[in-house]
Amino acid sequence: MAEIAEHKQNNIIYNHRNFPLLGVRGMKQFISVHDVTDIDALVAKALAYKAEPFKDRTLGVGKRIGLLFLNPSLRTRLSTQIAAKNIGMEAIVFNVDKEGWALEFEEGAIMSGNTVEHVKDAAPILGNYFDILCIRTFPSLKNREDDYSELYITEFIKYCGVPVVSLESATLHPLQSLTDVITIKEQLNQNPLSGNPKPKVVLTWAPHVKALPQCVANSFSQWMNAWGEVDFVITHPEDYELAEQFTKGATITHNQDEALKNANFVYVKNWSTYKDYGKIYENDPGWMLTEKKLQLTNNAKVMHCLPVRRNVELSDEVLDGPNSIVTQEAANRVWAAQAVIASILEGL
């Protein structure tokens, strides 16, 4: 991750690139929940933008944000572009996997193979082109140590010299998770729970046709635990445990029906195995969330990050029913991105 702070001036701590470090003033980067000092304040900022999208229309005038995609995107790409435009920034998208040179990330690599340009050469140039750099990359699901080192995004942070925003990395998807908190908070604002108990939020594994990363599940778990405003439960089949660094603090059970009892929110997501990395051990269709299973909950709202495999992860009756808030959730991606970008600009 980014270098440790090296000097202090006017009660603001700076690192060697003179970015004010998080927790003192502004937001220096957005890679995980650890880059946020006050989740509720960031959520409130996002909801304020939803109420008045153009209230800071001049904040980013004269500044550029670069969106680098090493993997494809729909909601993340479009919502971030819209968010940047709402506050006056120029957004430039570059699909590295289709339009650019194959990048090398290994230190000391002998570049006699397929890679054409080292990140040490590319990243500093991008830092000169942009005021904020956003990066999206996926894990290989072949080598856990490599994926969980977060080499790609870490190298960009190390060499680009400007604030970096994760548009999803090998292990986390913080913009999605911030969106999820925003959506839960918005629902609770609209329909407060009687007696104001902590809402019960359940993350449930679902079947899928191929091995998927743990990014969204890791990130959702990390944010729910850090937020601390919910009773958080994770349910999945045996052998689908997530990394403890993200799930510590949650209740974990292999009994989906038990987990769903009295739930207020159910977040549906597939992920592949973590210990025997990137595998599919089972695809039991009994783990798909159906209307019958939803009856176990406290009329729970159903969430999913999208895209979703209909009638594999979630049944049509649930997705198209009154409990589904997946469209609201996806729409809130704009306000999550806008709150993050604005917070970074305000800290520069």
Question: Termini distance?
Answer: 19 Å
Shape: globular
Beta fraction? 5-15%
> How large, in whole angstroms, is the Cα Rg?
20 Å
Q: In sequence order, what are the helices and strands, one letter per element?
A: EEHEHEHEEHEHHEHEHEHEHEHEHHH
User: How many strands appear in the DSSP assignment?
Assistant: 13
Q: How many helices in DSSP terms?
A: 14
Secondary structure class reads: alpha/beta
Q: Kindly state the mean pLDDT as a whole number?
A: 91
* Widest sheet, order of strands: 11-10-9-12-13
Helical content stands at 25-40%
Largest sheet: 5 strands, parallel
- Sequence stretches where pLDDT stays below 50 over 5 or more residues: 1-25
How would the blueprint of this fold be written?
Blueprint: E1 7-9, E2 12-14, H1 39-51, E3 64-69, H2 75-86, E4 90-95, H3 96-99, E5 103-104, E6 117-118, H4 119-129, E7 132-136, H5 144-148, H6 151-160, E8 164-166, H7 174-190, E9 200-205, H8 215-227, E10 231-235, H9 244-247, E11 251-253, H10 256-260, E12 265-269, H11 291-294, E13 301-303, H12 316-319, H13 326-331, H14 333-347
Parallel strand pairs: 3-4, 3-7, 5-6, 7-8, 9-10, 9-12, 10-11, 12-13
Antiparallel strand pairs: 1-2
Helix pairs in contact: 1-7, 1-14, 2-14, 4-6, 7-8, 7-14
